[in-house]
Amino acid sequence: MALTAGKGRSAPYGNYVCHSLQAGSWADRSPLHDAAFQGRLLSLKTLLAQGFNVNLVTTDGVSALHQACQGGHVACAKLLLESGAQVNAVTIEGVTPLFSACCSGSAACVSMLLEFGAKPQPGSHLASPIHEAVKRGHRECMEILLAHQVDIDEEDLQHGTPLYVACTYQRTDCVRKLLELGASVDQGKRSDTPLHAAARSASPQLVTLLADYGASLRCRNADAKSALDLAAPNSEVERALLLREGPASLAQLCRLCIRKLLGRSCLSAIHKLHLPLPLENFLLYR
Hints:
Layout: H1 15-20, H2 31-38, H3 41-49, H4 64-70, H5 74-82, H6 97-104, H7 107-115, H8 129-135, H9 139-147, H10 162-168, H11 172-180, H12 194-200, H13 204-212, H14 227-230, H15 236-243, H16 250-262, H17 277-283
Helix pairs in contact: 2-3, 2-4, 4-5, 4-6, 5-7, 6-7, 6-8, 8-9, 8-10, 10-11, 10-12, 11-13, 12-13, 13-15
């Protein structure tokens, strides 16, 4: 199964990829793979001392490091890396150990892999760690990747931007953090916006949150439908969208304008401007 990541990629990965790394999903797993997946550190040390190749892979290209990260076993992953495991090893499905760590939600594994040289934003033919982290609601993993310069608006042809994925899977914490960090509120999956995804997932909370950050209610997708068109009649989502149909308040327009002028890189420095606390809280959506 071909997997891709980055601008203009097509990536049919997801649960299948993570499940394919589970123990028992291949016929030629080794004792090293089993020990790594189960988090048996002493067994892993013994096997390596006996001469097992740390980079031994299955026919699908799964390494022991993949398995340790899939299980969230940071001590095992560290041992393997210190023993020479390839930090950017790729399975035939385009999965890296970093992707596996994001799949399991192990922030400790994600941080350690990056310290050992893992590529936070892999090439165009690999599965995207940040999309997997967001899809599963692993906000801490997502934040670590963003702190390592992963493109916050990285668009996957099948899954869209991280914000779009977060709205699709109703990961409210991830949505809020992505917006705080300056994610493009209207960039989703081609012409389908995060607001379309929020309306489709029937989440009035996400609709309101996106609207607060300036999401356009007028955007239409490839089917010429707006978010309001996708809302169920007489639903909370429809009411939330109808409440936002009129012109935005002057205060809201000013907030959006200031945040836009500051730019994404300066949003985290708003607290350094020594503004009155109410104004600082307003700009930061507190």
